[in-house]
Amino acid sequence: MTDETVPSAYPPPADFAAHANATPALQDAADADRLGFWADQARRLHWHKDFDEVLDWSGAPFAKWFVGGRLNVAYNCVDRHVEAGNGDRVAIHWVGEPGDSRDITYSQLQTEVCCAANYFSSLGLVAGDRVAIYMPMVPEALITMLACARLGLTHSVVFAGFSSTALRSRVDDAEAKLVVTTDGQYRRGEPVPLKANVDVALGSGDEAAQSVQKVLVVQRTGIDIDWVDGRDVWWHETVAESADFHVPEAFDSEHPLFLLYTSGTTGKPKGIIHTSGGYLTQTSYTFHYVFDHKPETDVFWCGADIGWVTGHSYLVYGPLSNGATEIVYEGTPNSPNEHRHFEVIEKYGVTTYYIAPTLIRTFMKWGREIPDAHDLSSLRLLGSVGEPINPEAWRWYREVIGRNNCPIVDTWWQTETGAIMVSPLPGITATKPGSAMAPLPGISAKIVDMAGNPVPDGEQGYLVLDEPWPSMLRGIWGDEQRYIDTYWSKFAKEGWYFAGDGARYDEDHALWVLGRIDDVMNVSGHRISTSEVESALVGHHAVAEAAVIGATDETTGQAIVAFVILRSDATDTGAQLIDELKAQVSIDISPIAKPREINVVPELPKTRSGKIMRRLLRDVAEGKELGDTSTLVDPAVFEAIRANRS
Ligand code: WTA
After folding, report:
1. Would you say the CB of residue 411 lies under 6 angstroms from ligand 1?
2. What's the mean pLDDT when you consider all of the chain?
3. What is the mean pLDDT of residues 53-77?
4. Which domains are assigned to the chain?
């Protein structure tokens, strides 16, 4: 750093450090006895029956954590706080997009979860059955997740921005018996249909989704909806009328808690399986230490949607298992205007704010006068998740939102890891802008070369997890082999999990995650696979071949850029076709997967073995000088591509 006024690392403020939950003793304990350390973390929860063994790794890579233990996840997130005398504490400050709001105490949450559990049981659902949740950020979404957890039903939340095609494939794959949804959802002030997508997804007659018995509908917007008698039921006529007393049953620590579908390197999304005891242990542990949570005084806000893993772990299970008070916001950050988030922080006295870098960069674009117009002095800790945060955004976040007084935790983890793995500890770590710093106590990670040798500081390598961890995925729903192939084959000999990310240690041994090195893109913190978008594009009759890449984008991190070769009989080749192709991707996957740019090209760059050279396409899309083209069959193809770029 040449500029003396800009420090390269930021130690925590002294008063923060003095009261921090995590002290250096935490790392010492984990180093001394890793499994004993995790047993201690597990015992922060209530176990109906204590476990006999911390970890059984004999069936690697299928782990069993807290073997023999029995617990109820919902009891841990709700009832136990009521029993401890905290029933009047607000669990959820819910803020609706149109301006309505609701405060839900732990006692009220208990009542609502019990009603839902009783109704779900009355439908004949039993532990192990799957429930699909396709809902915006309304309280009933969290209540449904908790009611499922209470009964041992495995929930599968499908992001409400996904299309009906995407919903159907997830419902079918999981063979969900119940789908919970809302009539509509608010999008920038306007009610838009949601139940209608469920109707399309589930189909009728011969085409009907076989597994689904009931569709439970929360009335949110009051818009008109179609109704299928015998299948559809209103929440307010069923759940709300059910008994509010329910005794939770304890389930095995390894009982499946949820499936969450995520994009992989092939077109078919993977249903990531998470179980109960280990998942809750690590989400609860990380929430307490990484967010330095003080239940009496903190107001936590995680800006993620429940459709993503961040919403599962840090909007539901992590905060609620710790008895937190949190914000659940239904809408977008610029509805009705760009002040929305800052008004919420000011009104509720938010202390801990956890968002994705893409939103920070959006705030930067909107200008600092917007946050500057608000009193943000309640904030004491800031978090970042979902993609690498560039140092410039990090510094802006610290200065403008955090008033140079809040530690920032840049947390690296994945749908598959279930909970935070690499992050600063806010009262201990001197943080470097852009670096996730170090694996948490209890977690072991390495950066290695292809042969599995640790790379020297300063060099890039593969990020691997060389020891199992409690909240690790337990497999891919219905496809054990894919689980082994995807995560455990690259370093099979060593028995390490390969995360799909590149990383490096810097000269101070701080860990920098550099992003995906496989064919997964990260657009605004959303994972989208290149092949999923490619298969949507070639699903269009005019397209012969497609290659999709994630190009660097100032705001969204990456933006989707597609290159397509048309079939020789394609008649329309102009702007209308491009619009049609974009629409096709929206319908097949989601509007979030819509390419920013589609280029019609005469040929795609391929290696002699026929592999598309995505790296070179990325160079083209980013306007860079081309890298090494020597392995290409026909280097001249780039001239043609450049000439054709729209
Ligand atoms: C990326 C989101 C850099 C990474 C919790 C990972 C990050 C993928 C960070 C997982 C971070 C997440 N720094 N990159 N702090 N956090 N990523 O499954 O590429 O939606 O593999 O989980 O996001 O995305 P997922």
Report:
1. yes
2. 93
3. 98
4. 445-517 (2.30.38.10), 524-645 (3.30.300.30)
